[in-house]
Write a structure and sequence with these properties.
Two copies of one chain form a homodimer.
Chain A: E1 3-7, H1 12-21, E2 26-31, E3 42-45, H2 51-59, E4 64-67, H3 73-78, H4 80-104, E5 112-118, H5 141-158, E6 163-169, E7 171-172, H6 185-195, E8 200-202, E9 209-213, H7 215-227, E10 238-240, E11 244-247, H8 248-259, H9 261-264, E12 267-269, H10 273-280, H11 289-293, H12 302-319
Parallel strand pairs in A: 1-2, 1-4, 2-3, 4-5, 5-6, 6-10, 7-9, 8-12
Antiparallel strand pairs in A: 9-11
Helix pairs in contact in A: 1-7, 2-4, 4-5, 6-8, 8-12
Chain lengths: 320, 320
């Protein structure tokens, strides 16, 4: 059984991943807190940016480490120190501690690290379609922190201390659970709320185009990356992942096909200048040729993304 | 008088810069050591990666800070921990301390920071000509450290704590002084040694193309950046600087024009597989359109680069 650590294991993607790995997997979940009815695994709580925690976790010599721990974009923008501490220094401390273990093992211990980066490493002006050669010029603290982590992980890997890969996830949609404060929350909300019989607010024009993949795809990306031979990455260890690009209008049409006009009628358009401005700075579409060639797969239409939510999360949602 | 700090003020470029600013400027030079007959300025010695030093320097509230302190590419590759400490964490500590001063001043103190990055932030495969949109994918620790610094400086600047700019310097040629261990050293050596009546080793084929600017241009880039309105950077605060692209054969032809066949005869071709491999991973040519539009200027032929060495450094060299 592969000895596995999931940092950020209490979060939505961490829980999906732990469930995907299953109850028989040898998993430790680390987070500041866990939801009730958590996915299976040994739970540890603490602050991921504490160097003593990094040392302690490294000393357990996990074979595979999923590093999903982060504060979200909005919080990283509002709390600058916390953002750099959790989103950047925590990975630095972990890599530094893992390098010590690597050296203590005489070079035998080389953990696989799968790091969730983000399309926030990109900043405008954008082409209509972002290819694998597009430069990383983030315009948020969150994006800058993720980009620094990619550089560190690549360099520690190039030196052979660890074996890392950075996955630039699309926006995860449909997120289960309650609405959160993320500016991107409405992309999920306009689907999730109507399917739960509730009203949803659409704060932007329905011409807005964005890049989506389901939580199920996110968990699949992670396990696919863990099994990947990183020699195939040719030293470029940060990957733009596949997703599905569509406009809000196309999202709404898919909802109509899946759940009918009554669901669509639950969406109320209330323009919000702040959110419109943030969203206008986001990528709209990608050509993730390298990741596709490496076998990463996402949904190929938005109806399928909605269906994944219905299959995986709607029942749990209704029972709450 | 602008209160100015030069970190790495004891190095070759730092000394050129201090001399360019002149004896009447209000300059503090910080480094681990200084050459005899140092350029003018108050000298302070210490380890730039010590957080207490960063705090102490920040508390002096310099208006302009030139951050040139670094260990070179070869040393960063050989001593991983020292490279990340000096080349990355030192700037982090300084930015963190400057942010504290910014906040203590009620937001009034916003130092200008000019950071010397490098074309090492780029990694192959390269196009023949690298434009301003080419991605940063470093393949050395030095390049990764410089790229992280660019990201941090941009984010601290975007938030208004400091006002920074990162300058991706060409290879500086002709470097005065004795040969050093840098893999790029021969680009200077094949000009400098013959002009000083000594034999020079050429370890690569004369078809190798590279990107050069003189030490005088480097100092001029720095003062030009200090005077620049960074609003013109539109949030992309890392700049590829102008230089002159030529092959080693073209360097040698220029040497022949300037100093005759007897100088050229001092160059001995001794192929070195290690250096050939390193150099093959370096950029060859740039189209630095943004920097040119912002008024940065370099030499426009290699004869001029040689003449700058003769005018600025050869006499000092001969007197040693």
């Amino acid at each position: 059984m592969t000895k596995t650590l999931i940092l950020g294991g209490g979060g939505m993607v961490g829980q999906k991943l732990a469930n995907r790995l299953g109850p028989d997997a040898n998993i430790t979940l680390f987070d500041i807190a866990f939801p009730p009815n958590s996915a299976p695994g040994v739970q540890k709580t603490g602050n991921v940016s504490d160097p003593a925690i990094a040392k302690s976790l490294a000393s357990e010599r996990f074979e595979v480490i999923y590093h999903l721990a982060a504060i979200v974009s909005g919080e990283a923008e509002a709390d600058f120190d916390k953002g750099w501490s959790i989103n950047m220094m925590a990975l630095w401390n972990l890599l530094d501690a893992l390098k010590d273990e690597h050296e203590a093992s005489g070079g035998a211990y080389i953990p696989k690290i799968i790091f969730t980066s983000s399309i926030a490493v990109f900043g405008g002006p954008f082409p209509e379609m972002i290819d694998d050669e597009f430069l990383s010029a983030p315009q948020t603290s969150y994006g800058a922190q993720k980009a620094c982590c990619e550089l560190m992980l690549t360099d520690f890997s190039r030196k052979g201390f660890v074996d890392g890969i950075s996955l630039r996830l699309p926006t995860i949609c449909v997120r289960p659970g309650k609405p959160n404060a993320a500016a991107s929350g409405f992309f999920s909300g306009i689907i999730r709320e109507p399917l739960n019989g509730q009203t949803a607010i659409l704060p932007v024009a329905d011409t807005v185009r964005h890049w989506h993949a389901s939580p199920r795809s996110a968990a699949r990306f992670l396990t696919h990356a863990a099994a990947l031979d990183t020699a195939k990455l040719n030293g470029r260890r940060a990957l733009n992942l596949p997703g599905f690009s569509c406009t809000v209008a196309e999202q709404i049409e898919a909802l109509r096909r899946v759940a009918g006009q009554s669901a669509v009628d639950k969406i109320k358009h209330q323009p919000d200048e702040t959110i419109m401005k943030i969203v206008s700075g986001w990528p709209r579409n990608f050509d993730p040729a390298r990741a596709i060639e490496l076998g990463f797969k996402a949904e190929s239409d938005f109806d399928e993304i909605i269906q994944v939510y219905i299959d995986d999360d709607l029942a749990n949602s209704a029972s709450r």
